[in-house]
């Protein structure tokens, strides 16, 4: 019996070490916000790992799921602009910054006046899952360099959907993106940012495997915010 407990304790210690090493490795690979993003983030407040950019709370709230291993503050530039246009933005944070580990984190945001949800890359895929399962008070869904899979099938949704891509995106799996269009409603609005890349939907520097952008990050951030605000103004608030 003593040998059994020794083995059990040994296994538990080994698992704990593996977990700690995994967390350390993941954190070291996390993409960090640029100085411009950190500056924009100063007007936000963070509660329970949710960063809020305050707008007009009479309008639907915008809930955002970051891309994999991207620090949430990296999206502060366009989020600040969207909030200034009248839409409160809530950027959520996931365990290890991986949306797949806690898809329902949007439950923490009040949706009394309706909500719009979207995400970047993996975050967008998980956001569509949430939208599929939580249609009450849902006003719209948007994708930044992202697309849904079967669990996030939005074909039957009656809310507006926006999909924004960038021409120099080297991360997005374009074949899968095009195939996934069948999971979106026919009235989905598609926009493409010429010269933009995958990392440019946030502001965190170069991303491994991505192509170089032919426009500045500042310009791409401005385009992202403009497209989102126009969509919100024309499709969500009628």
TrEMBL record:
InterPro entries: AB_hydrolase_5, AB_hydrolase_fold. Residues 62-222 form the Alpha/beta hydrolase fold-5 domain. Pfam families: Abhydrolase_5. The chain crosses the membrane at residues 7-26. Keywords: Hydrolase, Membrane, Transmembrane, Transmembrane helix. GO terms for molecular function: hydrolase activity. It comes from the Bacteria. This is Alpha/beta hydrolase. It comes from Candidatus Companilactobacillus pullicola.
């Amino acid at each position: 019996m003593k040998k059994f407990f020794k083995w059990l304790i040994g296994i538990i210690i080994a698992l704990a070490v593996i977990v700690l090493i995994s967390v350390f490795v993941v954190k070291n690979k996390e993409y960090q916000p640029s100085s411009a993003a950190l500056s924009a983030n100063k007007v936000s407040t963070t509660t329970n790992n949710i960063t809020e950019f305050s707008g007009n709370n009479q309008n639907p709230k915008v809930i955002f799921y970051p891309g994999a291993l991207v620090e949430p503050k990296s999206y502060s530039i366009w989020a600040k602009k969207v909030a200034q246009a009248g839409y409160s933005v809530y950027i959520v944070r996931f365990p290890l910054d991986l949306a797949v580990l806690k898809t329902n984190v949007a439950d923490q945001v009040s949706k009394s006046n309706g909500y719009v949800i979207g995400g970047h890359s993996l975050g967008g895929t998980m956001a569509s899952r949430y939208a599929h399962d939580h249609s009450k008070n849902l006003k719209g869904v948007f994708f930044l360099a992202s697309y849904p899979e079967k669990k996030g099938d939005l074909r039957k949704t009656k809310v507006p959907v926006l999909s924004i891509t960038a021409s120099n995106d080297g991360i997005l799996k374009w074949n899968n993106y095009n195939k996934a269009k069948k999971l979106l409603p026919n009235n989905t609005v598609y926009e493409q940012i010429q010269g933009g890349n995958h990392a440019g939907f946030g502001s965190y520097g170069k991303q491994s495997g991505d192509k170089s952008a032919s426009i500045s990050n500042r310009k791409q951030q401005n385009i992202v915010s403009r497209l989102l605000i126009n969509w919100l103004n024309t499709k969500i608030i009628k």
